[in-house]
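ok so i was messing around last nite and threw this chain in just to see what happens. nothing serious, just curious
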Amino acid sequence: MIVKPIIAIESYPLPPSENVCYGTNWAKKSRFKTEAYDDFETEVFIWAMRNRGTIAHLKTLFHEWVSFPLGVVRIDFIFCFHRQRIIKKCGKLKSKKCDPLNYTKPVSDSLSRLVHVDDSFFEAGQVVKAYTESKKCEGVYLKFSPSVILLRDDAKLLLTAPKL
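result:
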């Protein structure tokens, strides 16, 4: 595979947690998008309209990267939350707040729709939680790079710790 430069995006809209993206209608036994998720989709649409050139570039690269045998797109996420969401006034972390893994799926789904690549071709790289003092700076920082699906034995090598 020819390695292309790594692409980064700043200030992608911050999604709601995956835990609040869908509700359940128990009577009909069906799931539905919540208002919070609809609002996020609207923010992504506005962001995409302002960043058409970036979306076109990503679309070209993603299609190229996934066209290789076992090719996937690696996405590194930095979720930047306003300080009040994750830190108490006393300086301690709030428990059960802003689990960054719960934010990756809505971002992957929205990117998938923007670039017309199924999100099964995405793999999560690093997922980092950060905080900001300014609510204006809340958002997601994304880094994209080509990757490949590993064979089982190759994947096991990555997990093998050196013996002391």
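not much to say yet. Residues 18 and 163 are 39 Å apart (CA to CA).
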